[in-house]
Amino acid sequence: MGMEKVLGKKMKRKLRHKKVTAVQKLYDTCREVFSTCGPGIVPTADGIERLKVILNEMTELDVGVRPSMPYFKVKESGGFPKITYLHLSECDKFSIGIFLLPPSGVLPLHNHPQMTVFSKLLFGTMHIKAYDWVDDVASIPTLKADSSEGEIVPVSVRLAKLKVNSDFTAPCDTSILYPTDGGNMHCFTAITACAVLDVLGPPYCDPEGRHCQYYRAHPFTSLSVDKKLPDDEKTENYAWLEEIDKPAGLSVVGALYNGPKIIEK
Ligand SMILES: [Fe+2]
Questions:
Q1: How far apart are the CA of 112 and the centre of ligand 1, in A?
Q2: What does each C-alpha distance from 113 to 93, 103, 166, 176, 224 come to in angstroms?
Q3: Is residue 122 helix, strand or coil?
Q4: Residue 186 CA, ligand 1 centroid: distance in Å
Q5: Mean of the pLDDT values across residues 191-212?
Q6: What are phi and psi of 18, to 5 degrees?
Q7: CA of 8 relative to ligand 1 center, distance in Å
Q8: CB neighbour list of residue 257: distance below 8 Å, 6 or more residues apart
Q9: Ligand 1 centroid from CA 140, angstroms
């Protein structure tokens, strides 16, 4: 009888050992779902659903992140609070990582060229503002007043439509953006400390032309460009996006992921 008990315990331990962690399930599913994808080629509806279901259930506990970690402390020095990036996995088909933002942390407006991106807020409250291009036209050269000198300087802008502009508080569903829809250019502003799990397919890749471009948004009415919106459209739902260099104050620092291990295949 004693022996039985011991065996039972051993079996249980074995079973517990075999339980697949959420990050492993996420990784394994990414391997399957993104296998047939590529730049500009989005996963199937079924694949998107499978990833969504896994991500919707995930919390910071699944990745070993805690709001008490020093990454979420705001330094008194002023300027942009530092953002931390935890790298979980990357191959040529997809990448998985987590952004840790202290309160007031900002990931400025940037794009995801030819990618499908799943963003799951693990904890906290974050404001997301996201745009899509209105059309494929090349940039429209225009003029704006240079604020420092009062001079008129030429800028290149492209019309974009606002797709998302609201606060998200965890637990909430995964947001998904696509190459040309769902808010491919987005900006994250942390209202409280927050953590976002990001799955990108395919990943950024400079040699392949998938470079992270930053933008400055100009209100639609602030530039005198000869462009008419349809009558039923509000001007506040549109903006001119100007390509800019990576903002000088932006600091995203890599840190070691210490959560449950992913066995890469
Ligand atoms: Fe992003």
A1: 7
A2: 14, 28, 23, 14, 28
A3: strand
A4: 6
A5: 97
A6: -75, -15
A7: 48
A8: 63, 64, 86, 87, 88, 98
A9: 25
Q: Residue 105 is encoded by which pair of tokens?
A: 């942390």
For the stretch 125-177, pLDDT in tens is 999 999 999 976 656 666 666 555 566 666 778 899 999 999 999 999 999 99
Going from the Cα of 141 to the center of ligand 1, the distance in angstroms, rounded, reads 26
Tokens of 172: 């909430």
Element housing 199 (H / E)? strand 194-201
Residue type, 30: C
Buried b (16+ CB within 10 A) or exposed e, 198-227: bbbbbbbeeeeebeebbbebbebeebeeee
Six-digit token pair at 104?
């007031």
244 CA distance to ligand 1 centroid (A)? 16
Predicted confidence (pLDDT) per residue in 35-86, tens digit:
999 999 999 999 999 999 999 999 999 999 999 999 999 876 667 899 999 9
Domains and CATH numbers, the chain: 2-255 (2.60.120.10)
Distance 224 CA to ligand 1 centre (A): 30
